Amino acid sequence: FDPRHYLGTHCFGFPKTGPHRLRFLLESVKDLRETLKRKGSTLVVRKGKPEDVVRDLITQLGSVSAVAFHEEVREILKW
């Protein structure tokens, strides 16, 4: 969980993630973790900036050969 997703937006100060979206996200992560557990796997959940968290996980695991990620698309509205 990237703390920056729970701050106000840079344009209008509204929260990026409101309470309903946050609850949906938490329930989805919980369901994914339970599904993976039933299949004999697990889900690692961390809080922090992804660039820091991923680096720390790679260091902790030691033998990582690949990392896949996606970047949030940010549109700049011009009036």
TrEMBL record:
Keywords: Chromophore. Residues 1-79 form the Photolyase/cryptochrome alpha/beta domain. Transmembrane segments: none annotated. GO terms for biological process: photoreactive repair. InterPro entries: Crypto/Photolyase_N_sf, Cryptochrome/DNA_photolyase_1, DNA_photolyase_N, Rossmann-like_a/b/a_fold. The keyword Calcium does not apply. It holds the Pfam family DNA_photolyase. Gene3D superfamilies: HUPs (3.40.50.620). The keyword Glycosyltransferase does not apply. GO terms for molecular function: damaged DNA binding; deoxyribodipyrimidine photo-lyase activity; FAD binding. It comes from the Eukaryota. PANTHER family: CRYPTOCHROME, CRYPTOCHROME DASH. This is CRYD protein. It comes from Formicarius rufipectus. The gene is Crydash_0.
